[in-house]
Amino acid sequence: MGNAALRDIAVIEEIPFDDVSGIVAVDAHNWLYRYLTTTVKWTSSDAYTTADGTEVANLIGIVQGLPKFFEHDVTPVMVFDGGPSELKADEIESRREQRETYEEQLEIAREEGDAVAIAQLESRTQRLTSTIQETSRELLGLLDVPVVEAPAEGEAQAAHMVRRGDADYVGSEDYDALLFGAPYTLRQLTSKGDPELMDLEATLANHDLTQEQLIDAAILIGTDFNEGVSGIGPKTAIKEITEHGDLWSVLEARGDSVEHGDRVRQLFREPNVTDEYEFDTALEPDLEAAREFVCGEWGVDEDEVARGFERIDETVTQTGLDRWT
DNA sequence: GGATGTAA
DNA sequence: TTACATCCA
């Protein structure tokens, strides 16, 4: 994705996990994918592969990843993507091509028996198959973790929920949460150590921009939905927007153009989101059913999930997560 | 994706 | 300051 350049614009600071509390609207796709790739990389495939060859590494990832929220008094709400935007077609296509390249390399690595390369490439060729989507939802259901279905971008829906006050933070690694108007975004929720807090208001104040101008600057730089203008990076974008006011004035002054700039603008300004969701943050996980689902029904190695289930039991079942609601 | 080095 | 290549995870 081309918009890591937004990192140079955003006001981001590390925040002690102990200072975080409340509800995090998590971009589920993003979160699952991170755990899926790390699980595949560090776990023997026997541990999560069924007799017919179906891989459900996501189940291990979920059981290992959830305790991180619970142990810090944070309730995750998993926001799943709806249909992908047409505008994102280019991005999806280039990822597909990238994945095919890795798959070819994987073939070669397998022929050569290069175990290190195989593990690396396997983690890069993962995708969220329908089995993974379905079993993830089912396991989250058994663990009573709230799930929200976004009409389009999960990121946009999560930002919307924070703006409405139904969640305190968006949880995502993507910087475009800022463009969707997320007041606070937590990053690095899947890594060790403390998360990063990305602050929209501070970002706008820092550069003396409006939300609309930030979006326009991002369009000049390039987003998941458009190419951006060659030669414009974060510095130039802000300078130009400040000088000329908005996207069209900048383009006119430079004699440049961007493809469907108006649609990308619209997509960030008024994203397709819904108010039709509800969730309960007093979690009552059915750990026995969850264990049976993961280890019984899907045959995942108990060793891989035992500690994760224990941690969930210790933090949710025994102490209760709902004390602050 | 992140970090880093280099060329323009 | 930006683009691009490369290594790591």
Write up this protein.
This protein is α/β, with parallel strands linked by helices and 325 residues long. It has one domain: Rossmann fold (3-Layer(aba) Sandwich). The chain contains 14 helices and 7 strands. The chain has a 7-stranded mixed β-sheet with strand order 1-7-6-5-2-3-4. Helix 2 packs across helix 3, helix 3 packs parallel to helix 6 and helix 10 crosses helix 11. The structure holds a DNA duplex (8 and 9 nucleotides).
List the helices and strands and how they pair.
Blueprint lengths: L5 H4 L2 E3 L7 E6 H15 L14 H14 L3 E7 L8 H24 L2 H10 L5 H13 L4 E3 L4 H10 L5 E3 L12 E4 L8 E4 H8 L3 H11 L12 H11 L2 H8 L6 H9 L17 H11 L4 H16 L8
Parallel strand pairs: 2-3, 2-5, 3-4, 5-6
Antiparallel strand pairs: 1-7, 6-7
Helix pairs in contact: 2-3, 2-5, 3-6, 3-14, 4-5, 9-10, 9-12, 10-11
This protein binds a DNA duplex (8 and 9 nucleotides) through helix 2 and helix 10.
Enzyme class: hydrolase
Cofactor: Mg(2+)
GO molecular function: 5'-3' exonuclease activity; 5'-flap endonuclease activity; DNA binding; magnesium ion binding
